[in-house]
């Protein structure tokens, strides 16, 4: 299978690309997060389904947090008042208010396979563009049927 890439925009550290793999298209922000923010609007900080920021023991006192629902002994970053994003995201500006001092899990994560960053250790597969026109994160190369995650009212 031949992968087709279309560069939508070049930024100083990389490219924003639409990638077709023969089955589906992904939107990939392959560069430094700070270069991508004006375009991605901090989608990773808007609390995708099934994703949360787990805090290390020494980080618990530094950040507003809550118990992890599946294991209350673990602590995760608090959500915003509306529950749709990270507590520390300035949603209007799409900027992290603690960037540079954010938790290690945030520093180690990038949403796209060729994402760049000094401390990045985990890269997801990009954002899946579905026929519904919705973007859904591809975690570890798995595809999620958005209809199983959300209630859809038809008619």
Descriptive notes:
This protein is 11% helix and 30% strand. The protein has 155 residues and is mainly beta. It has one domain. The protein has a five-stranded antiparallel β-sheet with strand order 1-2-3-10-11. A hairpin with a 2-residue loop joins strand 4 (65-68) and strand 5 (71-77). The model is unreliable at 138-155 (pLDDT under 50).
Protein traits:
elongated, single chain, two-stranded antiparallel ribbon, five-stranded antiparallel beta sheet, 30% strand, disordered C terminus, 155 residues, mainly beta
What does the secondary structure layout of this molecule look like, with pairings?
Blueprint: E1 4-11, E2 14-20, E3 25-30, H1 33-40, E4 65-68, E5 71-77, E6 89-90, E7 95-96, H2 104-108, E8 109-110, E9 122-123, E10 127-129, E11 135-137, H3 146-149
Parallel strand pairs: 8-9
Antiparallel strand pairs: 1-2, 2-3, 3-10, 4-5, 6-7, 10-11
